[in-house]
Each structure stands twice: as C-alpha cells, then as structure tokens.
Amino acid sequence: MRVCVVGSGGREHAFATVLSQSSEVVVTPGSPGIKGSTAQVATEIEADLYVVGPEVPLVQGLADQLRADGRAVFGPGSDGARLEGSKAWMKSLVEAAGVPTARYASFGEHEADAAVAFLSTLAPPYVVKTDGLAAGKGVLVTDTYTDAVEDVRAKLSGTSFGDSGRCVVIEEGLSGPELSLFAFCDGEKAALIPTSAQDHKRLRDQDLGPNTGGMGCYSPMPTVSTTDLDDMMNTAVHPTVEELRKREIDYRGVLFAGFMMTEDGPKLLEFNVRFGDPEAQVILPRFEGDLAETLLQVAIGDLQSPPTLSTDAMVTVVLASQGYPTAPQTGDVIYGLEEARAIEGVEIFCAGVALNPQGELVTGGGRVLNVCGRAAKLETARDLAYNAVSVISWSGMQHRTDIGASIQADLDKEEVA
Q1: Do 284 and 369 sit in the same domain of this protein?
Q2: Could you give the CA distance from residue 268 to residue 91 in angstroms, rounded to a whole number?
Q3: Phi, psi angles (nearest 5°) of residue 383
Q4: What tens digit of pLDDT does each residue of 278-288 get?
Q5: Using CB atoms within 10 A as the burial measure, which of 151, 278, 302, 398 is most buried?
Q6: pTM higher than 0.90, yes or no?
Q7: Phi, then psi, of 163 in degrees rounded to 5
Q8: Shared domain check, 13 and 135
Q9: Domain assignment of residue 287, given as a range
Q10: How many Cα neighbours within 13 Å face the side chain of 411?
C-alpha cells in the first residue's frame, strides 16, 4: 500500500514511522527530519490512502477535495471538522447529544459587555477560549477576574487572535486531572483506541507558564481502567457520533476527546478531529497489527475489528526553541541527536527542524523534537526519555523536567503503602 501523510510535525513523523513498517510512505510537506518528505502537494500525489495529520487542512476541506477525486482519506470532511474548527458549534452539538460538559456561553465580536457580564456570574478559575483554531494557544485559564475580562475584550476585538478570536466561548472552570481519549470513527460507529494519555500544556514545570501546543505526554495513565474508558465512550463519544449522524455528517477519522476527571465524574473539555500532538507520539508506536490497513478501513467506512495496543508505557518530552511559545528562535544547530537515538528504547520524532546552508539540522520552529522513551513500566520509560534529553542540546533549548512525574509519585506512594 502507498500512503500519503499530510503534515510536517512530530505527529506526522510518528505516523510515517509506524506506517512505513508495512507500507510505502510519502509525507507532504514533511521536513528534513522525516524520511519520504516531498514538496508535492497531496492532490498531486498518487496513493492508496491519505492520512491528514493537522487540523487546519481538515477544517479547510482537504479531505473533501481528495474524496471528490475518489481518494480514500483518513480524516473528516470540513463539516465534521467543525468539532474543532468552532468551539461554540462543538459545545452546542454535545449539549444536544447530552454529553456532560462545563456550563458555558458563547459571544460574538459585538457582545463584549454581555460576555463580561456572564464572566461575573462565574467563580474562578475563569476559562476563555477562542472559537476558531489557535494552534493550542487560544485558551486562557486564570483565577483573576480582571485578566479574564482583558482577555475577552482582546479576543473579541481581534487584537490577540484575529478572526479566530472574534467569537469566544466562556466556560466554568473545572478541576481535576485531564485525560485524552481517542476513538476511530468510520461514519457509522466509533471504536475505542484502548489507552489513555495525559498531555502537559504549560511551558514550565509544575504546570506554570503560558499554554503551549504541548510540552510532553505519557501513556497509559495507570490510574485509568478500561472500564473508565468504556464509560467515557458511552457518555460522550457514542452520543456525539450519533448526533453527527443525525445531522448527516459522515465522520471518518479519529475523534480525540479531552476530559477533566472531576469529583462529579468525567466532563468533556473539547473534541479534536485529529490525533493530539504529542499524544500521537506515545500512542501510534504501540499499535499492534497493520496500522495502514486499519486506517484504510476507517477511510472507506468499514472498520472491521477494534484496534489493539501494546501494554508498554511511553513518555515523550518536547524540546522547544528559545522564546517559544511567543517568539521562537530558529536556526540553532542541534547537537547530540544521533547519540540520543542510539539509546535502546528511545525514539525521536522531528517536530520543527530545518537544514542550514552547511547541511546541519537546526531548529525550525517552536517545538523542535519529541524525545520518547518506551518500556514496560512508566518509571523506566521516563528515565529513558530524560537520559536521551540529557545528550541533546542547542542554544536556549527549553523542556520540562516533570513529564509524568506526578503520576509516578502517586504510584510510588501506593507501593510503599
């Protein structure tokens, strides 16, 4: 099978790496760090299957364009992609489906005063989201009312996120650990990908600093059972898929559900219409069987058997450039990459790299590398990842030192008890 992967980041590198175990893979536009990259656009490439990695081309209708040409595509059309492309639309859909979620209201660009009035009815923390896409950076969570008011007015005026922010969703704050769940949808049904993952969004240790696209991730969450995941499928994913069908939306691809594990049970935070990044990097390598064949079945609307995964744990640590997330510096030479790759149990995916005139691999974006450790136990996987991180360097490199640390500390306490 020939597979075309659309995208250029660490998620797409993970896709390409796993798919290449059984198929010929071409990646567009890819990057100098991803084998099989090409400058050809997807519509010019002949392939048996097209896997669209990022959300932007899905929202813009690339899957529709490819399907109109008779191609098999893993990824929803623009109608289904509204689940991520419009948070207000997503909230209204899940409300209609009866999915447990945070209380909310949405406001347009001329409703700033009404938005501020709604904010005043909430207790901290305050959650303000851009309606449109914002590369994972359009969410403010703050305990300070004045900061929330300023953020609302900046977004609705177009100052902070342009047109993506001219509609906002304001939600009640929820507390508890976050969880990422993934399911394959073939237009008729949803099948759980049997694992959980936890992303770390904040730039600095202890969840401090600004929101980013993701600074690291681990999977599975040892405190989450298969029964827990099945319950979340039944309360959130299956009702959402049924509501999509009622609206005659033929959703084919992955559905990424983000939950907050509150004292009152799991509540849906968001749906994304693609694999998370960096969640994909700790899930895709653990797939058992032919991933390309499974994705093709989803693409043609006939998923025949549920996916299976290795029980191994994986931890990925994101290495970011100086100045990320506001003003990432590029062009810095990356040292130690091959030495890190030589460590058994380590895999490294390129998220934002480029070549300089001397042919050296350099930083090419905000998030640069995803350093992954894989082992039977979470603690060992963390050690492998951070051992590899310790031999990689460039000027101003940023990374968190606590990916998966809190859950490991909890496990250690249980063992002592």
Answers
A1: no
A2: 10
A3: -60, -45
A4: 999 999 999 99
A5: 278
A6: yes
A7: -65, -25
A8: no
A9: 175-309
A10: 12
